[in-house]
Amino acid sequence: MNSVTLHQPPKIVFGTNTIRQLPDDLQSSGCKRVLILFTSPLRSVVDTLSPSFDNLFIRTQSLEYAFGEPTVGYFHSLLKEAREFRPDCVVGIGGGSVLDTAKLIAALLDSKQKTGDVFGKNLLSGRNIGLICVPTTSGTGSEVSPNAILLDESDSEKKGIISPFLLPDACYIDPVLMAGLPPKITAETAMDALSHCIEAYTNKFSHPVVDNYALAGIKLIVENLEAAYKDGQNLEARSALALGSMYGGLCLGPVNTAAVHALSYGLGGKYHISHGLANAILLPEVMKFNLDACPEKYGKIADTIGENTALGGIAKIKSLSVAYGIPQKLSDIGIEASEVENLADLAMRVTRLLVNNPKEVHRADAIKIYSELL
Ligand SMILES: [Fe+2]
Predict the structure, then answer these.
(1) What one-character DSSP code corresponds to residue 320?
(2) What distance in angstroms lies between residue 264's CA and the mean position of ligand 1's atoms?
(3) 77, 215, 226, 282: which has the highest count of C-beta atoms within 10 A?
(4) Using an 8 Å Cβ cutoff, are 37 and 63 in contact?
(5) Statement: the pTM of the whole predicted model exceeds 0.90
């Protein structure tokens, strides 16, 4: 059995309307100046919380996140604004981009470290202020993971910062906040969460304790995506997806992802394809590539989602993304054959994830995987 280290937030609050507890909880933990980073569709949530903060004499500043996946430059612009307010706690309310940014603001707000110093694993020297994460999509699992990703514009590379200091002090996973997500985002983010679970379960460094999270997440996501896709207001389905996503996030610290994510980073970094969409396109093809390295694990995944064979399981996952309107080919999203070699070069640089893959991925393999998707 591999060894494993489990880092998780000390407090995970899960359930409908749990966001309402946040102001009282912040007061109990002694917070007096709270910076709230949010995306514009969540403004009404921030406005709803505002009177409670006022009543508790907690000073707040809202900072709108108005960008796609975060770049180093955009992060620095937000960090500058955050420093002017001098918060003692940062609350991120949004999807993975917002949460990753909130985590890094909290860690670097009064740090002497520069962003470039902390790319990689366990390089952050600490975090001196509070951090709360409130996810509003069911995808990245950032609220329970020690990871954050920034796009470095200098080399178009998506770079990870992995540190226990990026785990929030608490997260509030409230499915009500996900009810307004459009079907397209619901499907793409769910495929990201599904890929976290599958890549953790089939990981070279998998562990029985993480396998439990992974298999529970796979089952919840596959069984509930259709209902949440068809009716975003279905809170039972939203709760199940949120739980599946949380399980996927809990896999990221101890085991993390593998070739799907490594091959998707170039699509995000260079071609600005959204993270969920890139993973959704790559997932079935990478599963096919990995199948002979761990057929029994793919058999178990198939069994978990009601299929009899490993190949049947892979086909079912592909059929899910077809049913929810996710493009199946790189050519459908504007990636030409001439870009495959460059994508493979970018993927080969993501060694921190490639080492986790159950089967070694060479440049020629990456080229073949991308080419199958043209
Ligand atoms: Fe992901």
Answers:
(1) H
(2) 9
(3) 282
(4) yes
(5) yes
